[in-house]
Amino acid sequence: MRFDIVTLFPDSFSSVLGSGLLGKALAKQIAEVHLVNPRDFTTDKHRKVDDEPYGGGVGMLMKPEPIFASVESLPILPRREVILMSPQGETINQPLLRELATNYDQLVVICGHYEGVDERVLNLVTREVSLGDFILTGGEIPAMALLNGVVRLLPGTVGKVESLKAESFEEGLLDFPQYTRPANFRGWKVPNVLLSGNHAEIAKWRFQQQIQRTASRRPDLLQKWQQEREQGTGDW
């Protein structure tokens, strides 16, 4: 999969792209990331990428010309999505990441800055995406989260595919508690069922824990999960 990140601060991606599973995925060419700086597409001597908003107001807006030129300089793959990282967009969640990882060959990600982008930039955009209901100084951090979340779902990135299926949100519930050695740490003991070797009982315990944890921490998710089960087979 190809990622084209339109950003005024390409250096901010250096550490992220060279570390962990993401770095390994790029080294194995599971994905490729290209960083495009709108400042390189300006035509004035000051390389100006922002200006005051018409009608007045606080702050500056990113100008449309450098963004359009940046995106239009890119190759176009058949299955392409042009994403603007914006607090007004749909919130990133696991189904969205799965959709992007499955249905697209190219993601063009525009990182906004200042007070946002000129509204006409939306004529380029096919989807607006948000990290959450809060404001950051720019779109780079949300873009990194999107990039990381999508790449780790691509075949070959994670060694054991089964581990992706047993994570929080994959089945609509939060993940169950997990433990490793030692079995007793400062008086906190691993539940006996996990030491029993009885895989059926372990699976049952884990499912019960998922229900309890989701009810406690994210009752909204549990309600949604229950509604979906009721509308499906009803066998839960």
From TrEMBL:
InterPro entries: Alpha/beta_knot_MTases, tRNA_m1G_MeTrfase_C_sf, tRNA_m1G_MeTrfase_TrmD, tRNA_m1G_MTases_N, tRNA_MeTrfase_TRMD/TRM10. Residues 1-224 form the tRNA methyltransferase TRMD/TRM10-type domain. It catalyses: guanosine(37) in tRNA + S-adenosyl-L-methionine = N(1)-methylguanosine(37) in tRNA + S-adenosyl-L-homocysteine + H(+). The keyword Transferase applies. Its EC number is 2.1.1.228. This is tRNA (guanine-N(1)-)-methyltransferase. It is found in: Cytoplasm. The keyword S-adenosyl-L-methionine applies. It holds the Pfam family tRNA_m1G_MT. It is an enzyme of class 2 (transferase). Specifically methylates guanosine-37 in various tRNAs. One of its GO terms (biological process) is methylation. Belongs to the RNA methyltransferase TrmD family. S-adenosyl-L-methionine binds at G112, L131, G132, D133, F134, I135, L136. Homodimer. GO terms for molecular function: tRNA (guanine(37)-N1)-methyltransferase activity. CDD domains: TrmD-like. Keywords: Cytoplasm, Methyltransferase, S-adenosyl-L-methionine, Transferase, tRNA processing.
